[in-house]
Every structure is written in structure tokens, then in C-alpha cells.
Write a structure and sequence with these properties.
Layout: H1 3-6, E1 9-11, E2 17-19, H2 22-33, H3 36-45, E3 51-52, H4 53-60, H5 64-76, E4 80-85, E5 88-93, H6 95-109, H7 112-133, H8 138-145, H9 153-183
Antiparallel strand pairs: 1-2, 3-5, 4-5
Helix pairs in contact: 3-4, 3-5, 4-5, 6-9, 7-9, 8-9
Length: 203
């Protein structure tokens, strides 16, 4: 790291010193130590709200053309999804990439056996709610009971059911990714929103 880059002061044109903002120093070091692609990828990994190539370019200190090139590469890899805002293309992290990242984190924390056990427990809980309330999904549950108050007992159950369903999908993705890492095939279940159903997918 050069002394000029790491120092909080630099020489001013009149021979004195001028204070440099710490954020500017950190950003300059980030630019010096990373490639344009790495910076675009790092920003898009945290971009849950759509942003234009120009906005991403400004944040990553690259030209809009360079940002657009790397964003197209990430889109081809499934990391990025796009939407149109008039004539402007906007980019954000894809849902698939987000789920995959969370699934890999889960695999790092739990064994496949623990994940499979959790899947069985969540499916059993969801089936219990279906039978108790005679509905197939939390959305149907909300419609049938006309739930508006999230603080009510039914509102809390609705939130818990939706959370359990998301966690079930995540656990199933983690198990499929874990299996793929051992066999070279992605095996999973074609499921409905609550995780029922079942054919194997091979890619």
C-alpha cells in the first residue's frame, strides 16, 4: 500500500496539507486492491433493489460500459436478474443466487442428516396446519379467516406458516446442492409452495 494512499492527509497545491475523508481512503484502497469485475460483483451481491448500470458504475468506480459488460456476464451466470424502467435496464441480485447463497451457508452449519430431519419436521408442521384449518396454504388461510391484524393469534400463525414454508424451501435447496456436490447431479423435488410433490431433476 503506498504511503499516499494510506495517509489521512495529502499535500495541497499551496504546499500545505488537506484532510482526506476516511471513506475516500477506504474506497481508494478498495479500488486499488480489486478488479472491476470483483467490485461489480460485490456491489450486486448487496443490491436487492434494482439499480441501473450507471448507478452501479458510479459505486464501483468503473465506466458504465464496463459495468454493463460485467453485469451481462453475471446475468448469464444466473447471479443477476434484470427489469426495464422505461428505456433503462435495472439490475439486482437474482432470487436463485440469494437462495443458493443461503443454502450453502446452511450446508456449512448443518449436516445433510440434520437438514433432512428439519425438512421432515417442517413438512409435518405444515400438514398439521392444513388439516387443522382445512386449507392448503397460508394465503388461503388468510382469505378464509379474513386476517388483517398481524398482532392477533391468527396473524402470528400466518407469519409462522409463511416463515416455515420459506425455511422449508431453503432447506430443500441446501439438500439438493449438497447432493449435487457429491454426485454431479442436482436432485430435488418439484414441489408446490409448501414442499409437496415429487420428481427428480437432473442437470
Amino acid at each position: 500500500m503506498s504511503e499516499e494512499m494510506s495517509s489521512p492527509h495529502r499535500m495541497s497545491p499551496d504546499g500545505g496539507t488537506e484532510h482526506r475523508d476516511v471513506n475516500d481512503i477506504v474506497e481508494e484502497e478498495w479500488v486499488e486492491e480489486t478488479t472491476p469485475f470483483e467490485r461489480v460483483y460485490e456491489i450486486i451481491r448487496r443490491a436487492y433493489d434494482p439499480a441501473s448500470a450507471a448507478e452501479i458504475a458510479d459505486r464501483t468506480r468503473v465506466s458504465p460500459t464496463t459495468a454493463r459488460k460485467h453485469l451481462r456476464t453475471l446475468e448469464s451466470a444466473g447471479e443477476v436478474t434484470t427489469s426495464q424502467d422505461g428505456q433503462t435496464t435495472r439490475y439486482r441480485r437474482s432470487e436463485t443466487a440469494i437462495v443458493t447463497e443461503h443454502a450453502q451457508s446452511l450446508l456449512a452449519e448443518r449436516t445433510p442428516e440434520e437438514i433432512a430431519s428439519g425438512i421432515a419436521d417442517m413438512k409435518a408442521q405444515i400438514q398439521e396446519w392444513r388439516e387443522e384449518y382445512d386449507v392448503d396454504s397460508p394465503e388461503e388461510f388468510a382469505r378464509e379467516l379474513d386476517i388483517d391484524d398481524v398482532d392477533s393469534d391468527y396473524g402470528a400463525l400466518l407469519t409462522e406458516w409463511q416463515t416455515t414454508r420459506r425455511n422449508l424451501a431453503l432447506a430443500q435447496a441446501a439438500l439438493a446442492i449438497g447432493e449435487a456436490s457429491h454426485t454431479g447431479h442436482l436432485t430435488g423435488r418439484d414441489t408446490d409452495d409448501d414442499g409437496n410433490g415429487g420428481t427428480s431433476i437432473v442437470v
